[in-house]
């Protein structure tokens, strides 16, 4: 590297004309950030280096991408961009004064970068000094800023705009978008009925539906009613709004938010949250003393809750002094607001060697083949994340990582071309045996899955007497409007959950090809193969009879060692007779009025189990029904891909409307599997396969090869991976460059199946736990077993676990025990 030339101050200062001449060749490449441009000035595109890192951050003056010292040369060689703005924030520990304390705090005029970092600029123990300079490659000429008189106007404007731009990584400040609440026009003149209503301090429920969450107290007549329903399944049934429409009473306060400082008040008439300057008087009318109220999640005052060890405390191991852990593999992740679940999952999968090898082992190649904007490339960002978690560079105190070097060496030996898809370690085949109860004939089918979902066998609870006694006490407390008793959690044996998984399930509206009519049918699932890593989900999230999502707060004694060899599929057995391979008959409507109801008998059936799996993820129920219907009941995974592809559509959550027979040919053909008039596959089927990430002509080829059978077409694609790379031979060089990185992990050699079968014996190495009442709220943490001990990953906090709550987990990770 050549010696840098500094053009600022002293003898090194150059005339304005000299600087202008120096920059003339690069002026066409220097851009001024516009509205909508992303300026990555706080974090490197390939690492988590920032202006506070030792080498600072280089921001390209053309693409506005940021690069750390280790990656700037790669971008220069790849793009030929020469001019970068180098940002550096120096953190200097303050020198103690003569009296032994720190020097007096003073405003640091050298702090001018608008950065969002983990450091506190107002910290009394450190001083911060910012530095910005232009760097010109390849000679590394440096021009210190500000240098307004010497620099051309365009360069000065571009530098100023870049320095003042907001980082795309910055979390939006709630204060920047939350409007200041205004006093309601009804507050001063609100009429309150003298009807003798008194609101108790606890035990509230909606007077129309008995809901106990999201409750609102109408400040005119004292009615307690539920709020509106939200698309994620939270909220209520909208009875508070209905009451306003019937009575015109405008103001309501949310129960559970009342504190001595105020409360959440909503104006139905003004259709927005408002302030009520007279809230204390309005609440006192119904016997509520604001000074005695505290915010709680469930609407109870803090003094009303008996002290007990809650789910939040047990899972996070509160009350125990945990030893922090640092270094490679013990790096925490910042919570960006709703990212705790993603944080927990990433910690779990990057503890798996196959993911380490695929992303961190292939890191140089992934980075070299990344697209021009690596911030938008999945593989690049996964490699960046994996390196950040495993290297130890971002874990304090910092440590050199031998783990990274070891992983990269192993990957080079094992898999130099990077052909392994790490998610295949979770992949397994499920054999589904469907039997007609009347004819006793059977049908065997196979499907791919990645997770074992275990139902919660509530009927098998071992503490039923305690549960019954608790329920009686709870009802008595509710009737007497007393605080509820201490919670008793159901204790469920894992063996009972496994037994429930293996038992036959009734098939709704089963059409028997043997009888050519509807009949009773049962379906049993078994493992046609066992995965390298088994992911087990305890189905704690379910729906009540009122379709309101709820969580089962249960304790399941999950085993450290698991043997599911007895669930191995056996295939067609001697003496069993297969159901004929006959499709249901087509019913053509005689009357146009019947077009919406007469179709294939079997096609109208919707797999409710798949619908529930999707709904438990938080998607609207009607959208889940549409997804399962339009993907031909092929399972939750295929339906999930349909949801991702259609969730931006305006009618996404609208009720399912069955298309009329003879309506848009492509749509009808897709649903019913009919062949297009021009012998082309139905367009809707093609769209479904494309939404899963495959090329259009590959989708058409697969459908033609399987007579437009969507399920068989997907299997055909997976069994012909070599054709995926031949589908677009006419791609230009830019497309090839942008897609090269995606192919690194997508390539699959002709040798070796994607299903890695083996023993059915496993050992637990991690689990993810959820705290809260809904999948759309609460908090997630991860426990992993590393180097023979359990470690808790709670966002940024990584500590040695003292009491891992294995019985309260939501998702469990097992690895196969070698035979």
UniProtKB/TrEMBL annotation:
GO terms for biological process: autophagy; protein deubiquitination; proteolysis. Its main location: cytoplasm. It comes from Accipiter nisus (Eurasian sparrowhawk). It holds the Pfam family UCH. InterPro entries: Papain-like_cys_pep_sf, Peptidase_C19_UCH, Ub_carboxyl-term_hydrolase, UBA, UBA-like_sf, Ubiquitinyl_hydrolase, UBP13_Znf-UBP_var, USP. It is found in: Cytoplasm. The lineage of its organism: Eukaryota, Metazoa, Chordata, Craniata, Vertebrata. Its EC number is 3.4.19.12. This is Ubiquitin carboxyl-terminal hydrolase. The active site is at 340 (nucleophile), 779 (proton acceptor). Keywords: Autophagy, Cytoplasm, Hydrolase, Isopeptide bond, Metal-binding, Phosphoprotein, Protease, Repeat, Thiol protease, Ubl conjugation, Ubl conjugation pathway, Zinc, Zinc-finger. Residues 182-290 form the UBP-type domain. Residues 331-817 form the USP domain.
């Amino acid at each position: 590297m050549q010696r840098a030339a500094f053009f600022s101050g002293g003898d090194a200062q150059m005339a304005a004309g000299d600087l202008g001449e120096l920059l003339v060749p690069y002026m066409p490449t220097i851009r001024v950030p516009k509205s909508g441009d992303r300026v990555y000035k706080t974090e490197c595109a390939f690492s988590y280096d920032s202006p506070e890192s030792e080498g600072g951050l280089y921001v390209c003056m053309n693409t506005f991408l940021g690069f750390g010292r280790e990656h700037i040369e790669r971008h220069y060689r790849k793009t030929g961009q020469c001019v970068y703005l180098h940002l550096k924030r120096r953190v200097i520990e303050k020198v103690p004064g003569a009296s032994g304390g720190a020097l007096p705090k003073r405003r640091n005029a050298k702090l001018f970068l608008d950065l969002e970092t983990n450091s506190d600029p107002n910290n009394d123990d450190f001083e911060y000094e910012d530095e910005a300079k232009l760097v010109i490659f390849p000679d590394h000429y440096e021009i210190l800023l500000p240098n307004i008189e010497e620099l051309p106007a365009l360069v000065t404007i571009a530098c100023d705009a870049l320095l003042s731009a907001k980082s795309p990584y910055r979390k939006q400040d709630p204060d920047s978008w939350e409007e200041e609440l205004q006093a309601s026009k009804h507050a001063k003149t609100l009429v309150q009925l003298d009807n003798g209503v008194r609101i108790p301090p606890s035990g509230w429920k909606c007077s129309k539906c008995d809901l106990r969450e999201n409750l609102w107290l109408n400040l005119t007549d004292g009615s307690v009613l539920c709020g509106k329903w939200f698309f994620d399944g939270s909220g209520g049934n909208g009875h508070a709004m209905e009451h306003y429409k019937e009575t015109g009473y405008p103001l309501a306060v949310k129960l559970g938010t009342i504190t001595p400082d105020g409360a959440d008040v909503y104006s139905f008439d003004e259709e927005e949250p408002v302030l009520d300057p007279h809230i204390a008087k309005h609440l006192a009318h119904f016997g509520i003393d604001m000074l005695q109220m505290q915010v709680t999640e469930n609407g109870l005052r803090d003094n009303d809750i008996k002290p007990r060890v809650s789910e939040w405390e047990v899972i996070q191991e509160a009350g125990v002094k945990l030893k922090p852990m640092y270094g490679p593999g013990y790096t925490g992740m910042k919570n960006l607001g709703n990212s705790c679940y993603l944080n927990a999952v990433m910690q779990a999968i990057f503890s798996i060697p196959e993911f380490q090898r695929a992303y961190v082992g292939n890191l140089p190649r992934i980075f070299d083949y990344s697209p021009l904007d690596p911030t938008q490339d999945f593989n690049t960002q996964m490699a960046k994340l994996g390196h950040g978690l495993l290297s130890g560079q971002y874990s304090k105190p910092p440590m050199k990582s031998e783990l990274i070097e070891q992983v990269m060496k192993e990957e080079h030996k094992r898999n130099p071309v990077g052909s392994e898809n790490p998610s295949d370690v979770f992949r397994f085949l499920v054999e589904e045996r469907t039997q007609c109860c009347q004819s006793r004939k059977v049908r065997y089918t196979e499907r791919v899955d990645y997770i074992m979902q275990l139902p919660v066998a509530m009927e098998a609870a071992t503490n039923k007497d305690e549960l019954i006694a608790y329920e009686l006490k709870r009802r008595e407390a509710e009737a007497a409007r007393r605080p509820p008793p201490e919670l008793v959690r159901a204790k469920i044996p894992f063996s009972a959950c496994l037994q429930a998984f293996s038992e036959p399930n009734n098939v709704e509206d089963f059409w028997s090809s043997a009888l050519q009519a509807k009949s009773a049918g049962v379906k049993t699932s078994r493992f046609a193969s066992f995965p390298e890593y088994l992911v087990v989900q305890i189905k704690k999230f379910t729906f009540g009879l009122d379709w309101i999502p709820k969580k089962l707060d249960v304790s399941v004694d999950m085993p450290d060692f698991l043997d599911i060899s007895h669930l191995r599929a056996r295939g067609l057995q001697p003496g069993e007779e297969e159901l004929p391979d006959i499709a249901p008959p087509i019913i053509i409507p005689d009357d146009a009025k019947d077009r919406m109801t007469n179709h294939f008998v079997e096609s109208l059936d919707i797999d409710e189990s798949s619908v529930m799996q999707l709904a438990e993820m938080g998607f609207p129920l009607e959208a889940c029904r549409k997804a399962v219907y339009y993907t031909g009941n092929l399972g939750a995974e295929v339906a999930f891909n349909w949801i991702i592809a259609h969730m931006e559509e305006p009618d996404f959550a609208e009720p399912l409307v069955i298309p009329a027979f003879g309506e848009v040919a492509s749509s009808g053909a897709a649903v019913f599997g009919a062949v297009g008039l021009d012998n082309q596959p139905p367009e809707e089927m093609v769209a479904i396969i494309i939404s899963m990430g495959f090329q259009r002509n590959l989708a058409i080829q697969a459908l033609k090869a399987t007579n437009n059978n969507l399920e068989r077409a997907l299997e055909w694609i997976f069994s012909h991976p070599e054709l995926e790379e031949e589908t677009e031979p006419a791609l230009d060089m830019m497309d090839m460059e942008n897609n090269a990185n995606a192919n690194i992990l997508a390539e699959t050699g002709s040798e070796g199946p994607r299903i890695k079968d083996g023993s059915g014996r496993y050992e637990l190495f991690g689990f993810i736990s959820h705290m809260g009442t809904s999948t759309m709220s609460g908090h997630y943490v991860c426990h992993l077993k590393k180097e023979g001990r359990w470690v808790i990953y709670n966002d940024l906090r990584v500590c040695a676990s003292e009491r891992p709550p294995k019985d309260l987990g939501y998702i469990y990770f097992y690895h196969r025990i070698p035979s």
